[in-house]
Design brief:
The protein has 13 helices and 18 strands. By secondary structure, the chain is an alpha/beta fold. Bound molecules: NADPH dihydro-nicotinamide-adenine-dinucleotide phosphate, 2-oxoglutaric acid and magnesium ion (MG). 2-oxoglutaric acid binds next to α4 and α9. Homodimer. Its EC number is 1.1.1.42. Its cofactor is Mg(2+); Mn(2+).
């Protein structure tokens, strides 16, 4: 492995994946990280401080993370020059060191660069975006019983309209595709053909099956009750509808699930139910009866919407964590669910909880459970003592307002 500009760390070990799928993690692993744009400058140092303190405390100094800064977004352009938003070095580092973490990266709406977040997921084939949503006691929430929400979202991360196959109206490519659809395929329902932009939505058997397989494996390992396929298959029959059908196929053919009654719901031998729900109904049911849902498997766009909606139910995207994982190669890049919140950049104000809980997921993935537990304990204590950042403080009575860095320190104190 060689880098164009990065200096390979001189100390620290490389995390490896064994044939049986388990990871070999030394006591001093090298972990690449991207600071992130916008509030990345605030939350990433807070996250590193909390993680380092937890690891030090949990293992009496016998284990230590060797952080390795790699670049993407605005900082990459500064380091590598014009238009290098995602250097090869960064992808190489995540491939080589297997486990990494990133802050949020800016994506301008409309023209300009496509999403770097999406690009990292696609280029490293991190097909599962895993976003657990659970309630921490005391967190202010807009719903009456936030404690009833305990779900883990498995969002397909490489396909769907996020593949970026879009053609703007007025371009030759757009005209060519439209002519083909109308003349060759007989499409009659493009309402305003002269002015329509077009997007393509690829949903594949492989992409669906590896995602649903990972969700079911997770449900088995974590002893969860059900896996729900969320789709809009009544309208998008061959994309979202096929996702549903292929998802059930995985359950029946690979996990010996038995069809319940008339189907298509089915049950694994260990009792886990695999079911499905249409996306709009799901979005109202997460408010009215969230306890009926557990592990969720869905496509890219639905997963994006569902992540933020569910995060809001348990207290907002300030504390919703996530991971992008390829369960075959073992490569995993952990990241907050929220974006760069540019209006708060550099103010030491926002909640670092989302990135910190993403680091908790990372520590569990590495098998460093004791350090992960300490951080969760510290976070729960900070929230129950009502010593919180602005997003929680404005919704709580008699809370003490802390800065981003102070909230990190509060978590460390509570470990
Ligand atoms: N994975 C990634 O890197 C992601 C990147 N993005 C990108 O981020 C940029 C900004 O996107 P935008 O749509 O504004 O969404 P953001 O998630 O960045 O921010 C929206 C709002 O969410 C709240 N919020 C976000 N983060 C925090 C936090 N850490 N603590 C407390 N509150 C928080 C703030 O609410 P309030 O105003 O109420 O205080 C903020 O104004 C875009 O370029 C977008 O593409 C978006 C999502 C994911
Ligand atoms: O990449 C982006 O700008 C948005 C991504 C996003 O919203 C998400 O992953 O949840
Ligand atoms: Mg999102």
């Amino acid at each position: 492995m060689s880098f164009e500009k990065l200096e390979k760390p001189s100390v620290g070990s490389v995390i490896k994946k064994k044939e049986d799928g388990s990871l070999v993690v030394g006591d001093d692993p090298i972990i690449p990280f991207i600071e992130g744009d916008g509030i990345g400058i605030d939350i990433t140092p807070a996250m590193k401080h909390v993680v380092d303190s937890a690891v030090e405390k949990a293992y009496d100094g016998k284990k230590k993370i060797n952080w390795f800064e790699v670049y993407a977004g605005e900082k990459a352009v500064e380091e590598y020059g014009d238009d290098t938003w995602l250097p090869e070095d960064t992808l190489t580092a995540f491939q080589e060191y297997l486990v990494g973490i990133k802050g949020p990266l800016t994506t301008p709406v409309g023209g300009g660069i496509r999403s770097l977040n999406v690009a990292i997921r696609q280029k490293l084939d991190l097909f599962a975006c895993v976003r657990p949503v659970k309630y921490y006691t005391g967190t202010p929430s807009p719903v009456k019983h936030p404690e009833k929400t305990d779900m883990v979202i498995f969002r397909e991360n490489t396909e769907d309209i996020y593949a970026g196959i879009e053609y703007q109206t007025g371009t030759p490519e757009n005209k060519k595709l439209k002519d083909f659809l109308i003349d060759e395929l007989g499409a009659t329902s493009i309402r305003f053909p002269e002015t329509s932009s077009l997007g393509i939505k690829p949903i594949s058997i492989e992409g669906t099956k590896r995602l649903v397989r990972s969700a079911i494996n997770y449900a088995i390992e974590e002893e969860r009750d059900s896996v729900t396929l969320v789709h809009k298959g009544n309208i998008m029959k061959f994309t979202e509808g096929s996702f549903k059908n292929w998802g059930y196929e995985v359950a029946r053919e690979e996990f010996d699930a038995e069809v319940i009654g008339e189907g298509p719901w089915c049950k694994l031998p260990n009792g886990i139910v695999v079911k499905d729900v249409i996306a709009d109904a799901f979005l109202q049911q997460i408010l009215t009866r969230p306890d009926e849902y557990d592990v969720i498997a869905t496509m890219n766009l639905n997963g994006d919407y569902v992540s933020d909606a569910l995060a809001a139910c348990v207290g907002g995207i300030g504390i919703a964590p996530g991971a992008n994982i390829n369960y075959n190669s073992g490569i995993a890049v952990f990241e907050a669910t929220h974006g760069t919140a540019p209006k708060y950049t550099g103010q030491d104000k926002v909640n670092p909880g989302s990135l910190i809980l993403s680091a908790v997921m990372m520590l569990r993935y590495m098998g460093w459970k004791e350090a992960a537990d300490l951080i969760e304990k510290g976070l729960e204590k900070a929230i129950s003592n009502k010593r919180v950042t602005y997003d929680f403080e404005r919704l709580m009575e008699d809370a003490t307002l802390l800065k981003c860095s102070e909230f990190g320190e509060e978590i460390v104190k509570g470990m």
